[in-house]
DNA sequence: GTCTATAGGTGGATAGAC
DNA sequence: GTCTATCCACCTATAGAC
C-alpha cells in the first residue's frame, strides 16, 4: 500500500492505479514503468505481456474483495445484521481505495472481451449467494416480505453502494459537491442510508405497497392515457 | 436507428456502437469507418478529430435520455406514479439500446478526463432534481417516510436499473444465465421489482425499520463482538 | 463528398549489455 | 535483475487526386 518492498509489487501497485484511472487500452507499459520507478522493459521480466499483468492486478483485487465480503457475513448473527454488515463492508472497501471500484466497473463494462469472468463468477458464488440465502432466511423467519424475489432484492441492495462510488463525479454534481465527488462523511452517511433503505424495502408489510391509481400488479404495461 | 440516410449519421451510429462496446481508447478511426461503410479518412471531413466525434456521440445520446426522463415525469399524476414511470422509462431506454448504458458507464468512470461534464450536469439538473422534488412532495403528503434524505433516496432508486444493465454480465452469471446477461423478460421483471423495491422503502412506516439486536440508530459503528 | 497514399508519432515487445 | 537500444505494427491525422 506504501513503499512496496519488491519490484514486482511496485509494478502491480502502479498498474492497479493506472488501469483504474485510465483503463486498460489507454494505459501504456511505459506509463506503468515510470509510475513504478523502473524501466518499462523490466515489466516483461516479471510478466509475460500487458494482458497477463492486467489479469494479475484483477486477481489480487477481487480475491481481497471476496475475503472482505465473506468476513462481513461471518460476523453477523441475523439476516438484518448481515445486510448492514455487508453494506458497511462494501462502503469501507470502496472508500479506502478510491480507484478500485472504477477498475471493477470497467471490467464489468468491458466484459465482452472479458478478463475476469472466473473471478466474477467466484464473487457471485461467494458473496451473492450468501446474501440471497440471508434474505431467504429472513423471509422464512417472517422478518422480510415474502412477495419479493430474493435474487432481485440482493441486486437492489448491492447496487446502491456500487453506483454511489462508480458514478462518483455525477453523484458529486448531484449533491452539490462538484465533479470531485462527495466528501468521505457524505459517503459514510450514504452507506448508513443504503442499509436502512434496503432493510426498509425488505421489511415493509405487503399492505404498504400498492395503493394508487397507477396499475401495480396488473399485467398491463400501458400507462394510463392522459385523462 | 436503421439504414441511416446521410453519411454523417451513419458515422455517428457506428461510432456510438463501437465506443460503447470497446471504449474510446480501444476504438480506432478505421474501425468506425469500416463499420459505417465509408473510408476512414472521411471522418475528418465531418468531424475535427476523434475526440470531437466522441463528444458529438455523447451529446446526441444524453440529450435523448434527458428528454425521455422528462417525458416520464410529465405523464405522472402522483409521486408514486412518477417513480414507477421513471424506472419504467429507464428500463425501456436501457433495454432498447443494449450498448448505450455501457457508454454512459464508461463516461462516469472515465470522468477524470471528463468529456461530458456539462451533459451530466444537465441530466442531474433536469431529472434528478425532479425526482427529489417528487420524493419531497410525497413526504409532505404523508405518503413517504419523512426520516429519509430525499437526495439519497433518489440515488438509491436510480441505482438499481443502472447497475442491473451496467453489470449485465455479472448479473447474468448471478441469475444463472451465463455471461451473455439476463434475457429481456428478466430485465422487464427486474424493472417491476426495482420500482416496487423503491416504493416499499419509501413508504414503510418508521416503526418497521429497527427492531433487532444490531445497533441501528445508535452512533456506534462497532459491530458486536462475537459472543 | 469520397477516395488513395502517406507522413509522423507512439505503443507493445524483444535483444542483449551490464 | 535492471537497463539501453531498437524493431515492427498500427494509429491519428493530413495532402491531394477525383
Q: How would you spell out the order of helices and strands of chain A?
A: HHHHHHHHHH
Give the largest chain-chain interface (CB within 8 Å). Answer: A-B, 77 and 76 residues
Oligomeric description of these chains: homodimer
Strand content of chain A: under 5%
Secondary structure tally: strands of chain A: 0
What does the radius of gyration of chain A come to?
A: 21 Å
Low-confidence stretches of chain A: 208-227
Tally the helices of chain A: 10
End-to-end separation of chain A: 61 Å
Protein described:
With 227 residues, the first copy, chain A, is an all-alpha fold. Helix content of chain A is 66%, strand content 0%. Chain A has helices at residues 7-22, 29-36, 43-46, 50-74, 79-96, 100-109, 117-140, 150-166, 168-174, 184-203. The radius of gyration of chain A is 21 Å and the shape is elongated. The termini of chain A are far apart. The model of chain A is unreliable at 208-227 (pLDDT under 50). The interface between A and B is large, with 77 and 76 residues. Chain A binds a DNA duplex (18 and 18 nucleotides) through α3.
Please write out the topology.
2 copies of one chain form a homodimer.
Chain A: H1 7-22, H2 29-36, H3 43-46, H4 50-74, H5 79-96, H6 100-109, H7 117-140, H8 150-166, H9 168-174, H10 184-203
Helix pairs in contact in A: 1-2, 1-4, 1-6, 4-5, 4-7, 5-7, 5-8, 5-10, 7-8, 8-10
Chain A binds a DNA duplex (18 and 18 nucleotides) through helix 3.
Amino acid at each position: 500500500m506504501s513503499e512496496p518492498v519488491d519490484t514486482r509489487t511496485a509494478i502491480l501497485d502502479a498498474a492497479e492505479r493506472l488501469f483504474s484511472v485510465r483503463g486498460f487500452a489507454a494505459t501504456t507499459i511505459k506509463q506503468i514503468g515510470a509510475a513504478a520507478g523502473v524501466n518499462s522493459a523490466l515489466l516483461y521480466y516479471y510478466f509475460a505481456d500487458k494482458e497477463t499483468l492486467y489479469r494479475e492486478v484483477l486477481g489480487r483485487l477481487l480475491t481481497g474483495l471476496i475475503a472482505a465480503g465473506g468476513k462481513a457475513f461471518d460476523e453477523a448473527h441475523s439476516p438484518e445484521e448481515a445486510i448492514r454488515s455487508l453494506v458497511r463492508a462494501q462502503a469501507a472497501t470502496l472508500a479506502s481505495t478510491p480507484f478500485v471500484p472504477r477498475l471493477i466497473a470497467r471490467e464489468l463494462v468491458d466484459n465482452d472481451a472479458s478478463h475476469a469472468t472466473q473471478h466474477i463468477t467466484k464473487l457471485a458464488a461467494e458473496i451473492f449467494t450468501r446474501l440471497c440465502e440471508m434474505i431467504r432466511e429472513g423471509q422464512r423467519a417472517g422478518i422480510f416480505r415474502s412477495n419479493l424475489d430474493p435474487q432481485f432484492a440482493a441486486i437492489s441492495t448491492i447496487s446502491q453502494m456500487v453506483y454511489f462510488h462508480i458514478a462518483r463525479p455525477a453523484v458529486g454534481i448531484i449533491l452539490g459537491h462538484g465533479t470531485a465527488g462527495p466528501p468521505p462523511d457524505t459517503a459514510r452517511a450514504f452507506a448508513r442510508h443504503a442499509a436502512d433503505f434496503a432493510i426498509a424495502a425488505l421489511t415493509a408489510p405487503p399492505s404498504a405497497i400498492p395503493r394508487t391509481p397507477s396499475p401495480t400488479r396488473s399485467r398491463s404495461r400501458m400507462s394510463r392515457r392522459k385523462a
